Automatic annotation (TrEMBL):
It catalyses: biotin + L-lysyl-[protein] + ATP = N(6)-biotinyl-L-lysyl-[protein] + AMP + diphosphate + H(+). This is Bifunctional ligase/repressor BirA. It comes from the Bacteria. GO terms for cellular component: cytoplasm. Belongs to the biotin--protein ligase family. It comes from Tumebacillus permanentifrigoris.
Length: 256
């Protein structure tokens, strides 16, 4: 907490040396009434969770495995947009704290040279159609040597240490993430969503203008990523000129 200049995020901190998943603990604490801004952070996760039921490699002392409890008074429809807000904060924080100029792959991966160094997993709890709380889980591969990643992540994952060629102290990165996230989060709450942060997202993204394949529940859709709207929905232009809105997908950027 030393030197932390935020007034909401990280005012209350729950630290564990080892935990199954910081998102799971944050969910429990949130249901138990933990205050907004509570930061749950661990040195190691034994079952770190990724999006779509995947595992998240979370070895001891090598990364930032953290979750934030947020309680925006917003309709549930706006909940997913917090992930885009968090991605902007993360990308800005990496640049400011470590000089690493990475970029956002829609919706919420941070990539450097095509490899992922951070991921975000947002989980939500609703009461009727209002948000009760959000848990924004952030994983940053910090001091993982490139050859320490499991074989299946080869060519897919990277770390700040691998990028910078030196060990990076984690505390400064955590502090910077909270400092970058707080003002963006306040804007998201005040303006009732992602809308006013769209330009900031665009300034940090590496998706728009690229040919991509969106792997959606309705199948793969290929096209040029044209834009995102004020709800964070991705607009694709297919080869036949037809435009499609992508609400939720994993995407692959095609090199060309
Ligand atoms: C993804 O890209 O698939 C999302 C990865 C999110 C990982 C973080 S690490 C801290 C928090 N706790 C978890 O179990 N997952 C998130």
């Amino acid at each position: 907490r030393e030197g932390l200049s935020t007034t909401l995020l990280g005012q209350s901190i729950v630290y564990r040396e080892t935990i199954d998943s910081t998102n799971s603990l944050a969910q429990q604490l949130a249901l138990g009434g933990a205050p907004e801004g509570t930061l749950v952070i661990a040195d190691e996760q034994t079952s770190g969770r990724g999006r779509r039921g995947r595992q998240w490699f979370s070895p001891p002392h090598s990364g930032i495995w953290m979750s934030l409890i947020l309680r925006p008074e917003l309709p549930l429809a706006h909940a997913a947009q917090i992930t885009l807000v968090a991605a902007v904060a993360l990308n800005q924080a990496l640049s400011r704290a470590t000089g690493v100029q990475a970029g956002i792959k829609w919706p919420n991966d941070i990539l450097f040279n095509g490899k992922k160094c951070c991921g975000i997993l947002t989980e939500m709890h609703a009461e009727f159609d209002q948000i009760h709380h959000l848990v924004v889980g952030i994983g940053i591969n910090v001091n993982v040597a490139q050859d320490e990643f499991p074989a299946e992540l080869e060519g897919i994952a990277t770390s700040l240490q691998a990028i910078r060629g030196e060990r990076i102290p984690r505390a400064q990165v955590v502090r910077t993430v909270l400092e970058e996230f707080e003002p963006l989060y306040r804007q998201y709450v005040l303006n009732g969503g992602f809308g006013t942060l769209r330009d900031a997202w665009k300034a940090n993204n590496i998706t728009l203008g690229r040919h991509i394949v969106a792997h959606t529940a309705r199948g793969d859709i290929e096209g040029l990523a044209l834009d995102i709207d004020e709800f964070g929905v991705l607009l694709l232009e297919k080869a036949d000129g037809e435009r499609e809105k992508i609400y939720s997908a994993d995407i692959t950027v095609i090199n060309q």
